[in-house]
């Protein structure tokens, strides 16, 4: 009998301020992609947040879970690429693997794969989702008491303020607050898990402009060789006019990226022969690898 997966994974709600009090626990927000594990009947399967099968893409996680293949359980966690130079997760590296569907993408001598566990939904066919989160986390630690290089349980802290300070000082993504008494509720139909993110700053390359009615409407961003979205907030009409003049003098006939997002395909695009650097901020990187709600922080001056 196969263990039935939840129809939707429980997800934290974005908050400007994290809740405080003894009823809350706090965890690092790992900058990766959600990865659910189902171990049943001697087999190990891995699933994305959308419950797509990712078993062949994350062979390292499968190997780490091999000692448990004779058990029956469902684990919830995050697939992360850890950058040794930055000493923190790098979402762009895990995104390279997701986009290319290659198990080696994003992996190098300066980075490695980690499967970070934070929840236990089933154990030996017992459905644990109605138990308090604190109890589910305790049981998870009993199963995985030691931190292995590529597999471990994320810590649960009681001092959210100190954890947030550490995150800001070390450039990590954010903090998740979890009500210790909360059951596992699907989706975001709850008031039990909240996330707060640090301000995200990115150095990007502007590779083209979206043109509407003969004017620059937004700038097309590239980061680490991948399309990163488009940005218009922070541009005034004077800057748009200067950018258009520059772009018309240094345009490129061939697109930098193909295929483009579906909603871009009817846009008029001016591709630049020589991209230029720009600093932007945004709320988060979407699963498609695009920056959500981007805004320009610093842009070169053009006459």
Q: How would you characterize this protein structure?
A:
The chain has 303 residues and is of the alpha+beta class. The chain folds into 2 domains: 13-197, D-amino Acid Aminotransferase, Chain A, domain 1 (2-Layer Sandwich), CATH 3.30.470; 200-298, Nucleic acid-binding proteins (OB fold (Dihydrolipoamide Acetyltransferase, E2P), Beta Barrel), CATH 2.40.50. Helices cover 17% and strands 38% of the residues. It contains 5 helices and 19 strands. Strands 3, 4, 5, 6, 7, 8 and 9 form a 7-stranded mixed sheet that branches. Strands 12, 13, 14, 15, 16 and 19 form a 6-stranded antiparallel sheet that branches.
Features:
single chain; 303 residues; alpha+beta; D-amino Acid Aminotransferase, Chain A, domain 1; OB fold (Dihydrolipoamide Acetyltransferase, E2P); 2 domains; seven-stranded mixed beta sheet; six-stranded antiparallel beta sheet; 19 strands; elongated
């Amino acid at each position: 009998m196969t263990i039935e997966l939840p129809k939707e994974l429980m997800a934290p709600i974005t908050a400007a301020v994290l809740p405080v009090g003894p009823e809350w626990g706090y965890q690092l927000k790992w900058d990766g992609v959600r990865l659910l594990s189902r171990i049943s009947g001697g087999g190990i399967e891995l699933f994305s947040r959308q419950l797509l099968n990712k078993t062949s893409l994350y062979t390292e996680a499968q190997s780490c879970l091999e000692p448990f293949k004779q058990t029956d359980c469902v684990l919830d966690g995050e697939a992360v690429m850890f950058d040794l130079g930055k000493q923190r997760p790098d979402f762009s590296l895990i995104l390279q693997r997701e986009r290319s569907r290659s198990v080696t993408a994003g992996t190098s001598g300066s980075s490695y794969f980690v499967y970070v566990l934070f929840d236990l939904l089933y154990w030996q066919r017992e459905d644990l989702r109605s138990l308090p989160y604190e109890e589910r986390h305790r049981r998870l630690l009993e199963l995985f008491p030691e931190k292995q290089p590529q597999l471990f349980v994320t810590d649960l802290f009681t001092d959210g303020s100190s954890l947030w300070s550490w995150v800001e000082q070390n450039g990590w993504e954010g903090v998740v607050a979890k009500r210790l008494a909360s059951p596992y509720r699907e989706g975001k139909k709850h008031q039990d898990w909240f996330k707060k993110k640090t301000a995200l700053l990115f150095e990007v390359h502007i590779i083209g402009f979206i043109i509407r009615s003969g004017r620059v409407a937004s700038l097309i961003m590239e980061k680490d060789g991948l399309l990163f979205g488009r940005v218009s907030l922070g541009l005034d009409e004077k800057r748009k006019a200067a950018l258009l003049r520059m772009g018309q003098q240094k345009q490129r006939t061939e697109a930098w990226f193909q295929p483009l997002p579906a909603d871009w395909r009817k846009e008029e695009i001016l591709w630049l022969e020589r991209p230029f650097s720009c600093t932007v901020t945004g709320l988060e990187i979407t699963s498609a690898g695009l920056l959500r709600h981007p805004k320009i922080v610093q842009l070169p001056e053009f006459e």
